[in-house]
C-alpha cells in the first residue's frame, strides 16, 4: 500500500509556519520547528492542524483572552513575572546572577 503525501498547499503553509518559528535556546536538540516540519509531510495533515499551528504562532488565544493586571502582578509578588522573563533573557545570553544575590535573595 502506498503512503499518501500531505496535500501540497497545506504542507507549504505548515513549512512556512515552521520556518518562522522562534528557536528555543535552552533546548537546542528539541525544537518545535522540527515537529512542525515533520507534520508537514504527514499524510493525514488537515487544515485544522495548520490553523491551530498558525494560531499558536500568532498568539491568538492571548489576544482573545488577555490576562488581567491582577494575574500578571499578584499582590504577594508583583514583580515575579518581570523577574522571570529577565532571568530567561539573561540566561540565554549567558549572564548569571552573582552568588551573593542568590544567597541574599536580591534581584
**Structure class:** mainly alpha
Query: What's the mean pLDDT score?
Result: 89
The number of distinct structural domains comes to 2
Task: Report the total helices.
Answer: 7
Tell me the strand percentage band: under 5%
Order of helices and strands: HHHHHHH
Low-confidence stretches: none
The beta-strand count equals 0
Helicity level: 55-70%
Largest sheet: none
Query: What is the straight-line distance between the termini?
Result: 61 Å
3D shape: elongated
Radius of gyration: 20 Å
Pfam family, one: UQCC2_CBP6
Characterization of the model:
This protein is mainly alpha-helical. The chain has two domains: 7-66, no CATH class; 67-107, no CATH class. The chain is 57% helix and 0% strand. Helix 1 (8-20) runs antiparallel to helix 2. The chain is elongated, with a radius of gyration of 20 Å. The termini are far apart. 7% of the residues are buried.
Quick gist of this model?
Pfam families: UQCC2_CBP6. The protein is mostly helical and 107 residues long.
List the helices and strands and how they pair.
Blueprint: H1 8-20, H2 32-40, H3 47-57, H4 60-64, H5 69-72, H6 80-92, H7 99-104
Please tag this protein with its features.
single chain; 107 residues; mainly alpha; 7 helices
Amino acid at each position: 500500500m502506498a503512503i499518501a503525501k500531505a496535500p501540497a498547499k497545506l504542507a507549504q503553509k505548515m513549512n512556512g509556519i515552521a520556518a518562522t518559528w522562534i528557536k528555543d535556546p535552552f533546548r537546542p536538540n528539541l525544537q518545535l520547528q522540527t515537529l512542525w516540519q515533520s507534520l508537514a509531510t504527514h499524510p493525514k495533515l488537515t487544515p485544522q492542524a495548520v490553523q491551530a499551528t498558525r494560531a499558536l504562532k500568532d498568539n491568538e488565544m492571548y489576544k482573545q483572552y488577555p490576562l488581567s493586571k491582577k494575574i500578571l502582578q499578584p499582590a504577594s509578588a508583583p514583580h515575579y513575572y518581570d523577574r522571570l522573563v529577565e532571568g530567561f533573557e539573561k540566561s540565554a545570553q549567558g549572564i548569571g546572577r552573582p552568588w551573593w544575590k542568590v544567597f541574599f535573595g536580591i534581584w
